[in-house]
UniProtKB/TrEMBL annotation:
One of its GO terms (molecular function) is 2-alkenal reductase [NAD(P)H] activity. Keywords: Oxidoreductase. Residues 160-293 form the Alcohol dehydrogenase-like C-terminal domain. This is Enoyl reductase (ER) domain-containing protein. Residues 5-111 form the Oxidoreductase N-terminal domain. Coiled coil: none annotated. It comes from Centaurea solstitialis.
Length: 338
């Protein structure tokens, strides 16, 4: 029974060697009579940027830290192997919180979502049909309420969340520009996801000038994934009454103390609304989101690019790779022998 363990709390950029593939633990494939839990075989795992904060010993965060020496936990897709819970039976497919290991015992399975639609790739439940999909939906529609013709900018635009934000905004009739960190990703944005324009932020000396090139009349909606210098430049380019949905600030996650952000007074002068959110507060909207997104997938009005790494042993490098931009699309490690 293999699993991935966090060796110790991490400072700065996480490294593959901060995690260990442990094959020594055993698990019984039959649950005890008294249990109210389920036993699952994990099929796909999800690498997500918020997991970085769980690798630190931070008190008072909205997510609990991992315990050094224990298996990493996170979102995943799994199949029920044994169940002592009346809502789940052997063979059910689920997505939600599970362990980075071959099999997991889930003691409170009420938090899991049952997978009803299997005519789409199961790995999608770590992405477009899972947490990142809901994140794009809530952050764009609930917070920014895009209107036809509005000008939308998305950072980390080729990633798990960003590629969806851009495509949803296009479907809403917006003008959409994305930034990403490689030429390959910029091509994807323009040629696969249908962004109107895209640029490689690493090749721009002056981000303010880059944004002025694509938004001569300013930005109505900014979907914030990166923070730092990009946010400073965006603030200068917001339009009156613009909205900024603060989804994430990945450029700050590995810093001891976040960088200060200049130009915040633009929020005042331009009457901009900047609002943060946590997707976990909005899962009651999941059925509504599924109703919207499933037909879009089936009618090929939306596409989703995944970066699948084979096997649990590839998971540590895949997770660390999020912070250097190694992933092209949603990073999904698969579990062994799947
Ligand atoms: P991605 O699939 O976009 O992967 C992360 C990407 O971020 C990398 O591929 C890289 O792309 C980019 N990146 C990494 N470091 C930097 C940096 N220093 N500066 C700029 N870009 C960087 O991840 P997700 O789509 O899963 O997540 C996107 C954002 O959404 C994250 O900030 C995440 O924390 C946040 N999030 C927030 C949620 C919420 O509830 N609020 C829920 C889910 C995600 P590139 O090559 O383009 O640099």
């Amino acid at each position: 029974h293999e699993g991935v363990v966090l060796k110790d709390y991490v400072n700065g950029f996480p490294k593959e060697s901060d995690m260990l593939l442990d094959a020594s633990s055993t698990i019984s494939l039959n649950l005890p009579e008294a249990s109210n839990g389920i036993l699952v075989k994990n099929l796909y795992l999800s690498c997500d940027p918020y997991m970085r904060s769980r690798m630190s010993n931070i008190q008072g965060s909205y997510v609990e830290s991992f315990t050094p020496g224990s298996k990493i936990t996170g979102y995943g897709v799994a199949k029920v192997v044994d169940s002592r819970h009346s809502n789940f039976k052997k063979g059910d497919l689920v997505w939600g919180f599970t362990g980075w290991e071959e099999y997991s015992i889930i003691n409170a399975p009420e938090t899991l979502f049952k997978i009803q639609h299997t005519d789409v790739p199961l790995s999608y439940y770590t992405g477009i049909l899972g947490m990142p999909g809901m994140t794009a939906y809530v952050g764009l529609y609930e917070i920014c309420a895009p209107k036809k013709g509005e000008r939308v900018f998305v950072s980390a635009a080729s990633g798990a969340v960003g590629q969806l934000v851009g495509q949803f905004a296009k479907l809403s009739g917006c003008y959409v520009v994305g930034s990403a960190g490689t030429k390959e990703k910029v091509e994807l944005l323009k040629n696969k996801f249908g962004f109107d324009e895209a640029f490689n932020y690493k090749e721009e000396q002056d981000l303010d000038a880059a944004l002025k090139r694509y938004f001569p009349d300013g930005i109505d909606i900014y979907f914030e994934n990166v923070g730092g210098k990009m946010l400073e430049a965006v603030l200068l380019n917001m339009r009156l009454h613009g909205r900024i949905s603060v989804c994430g600030m990945i450029s700050q996650y590995n810093l001891e103390q976040g960088e200060g952000v200049r130009n915040l007074t633009c929020l005042i002068t331009k009457r901009v609304r900047m609002q943060g959110f946590i997707v976990g507060d909005s899962y009651h909207l999941y059925p509504k989101y599924m109703e919207m997104v499933l037909p879009l997938i089936k009618e090929k009005k939306i596409c989703y690019v995944e970066d699948i790494a084979e096997g649990l042993e590839s998971a540590p490098a895949a997770l660390v790779g999020l912070f250097s931009g190694r992933n092209v699309g949603k990073q999904v490690p698969s579990a062994p022998q799947f």
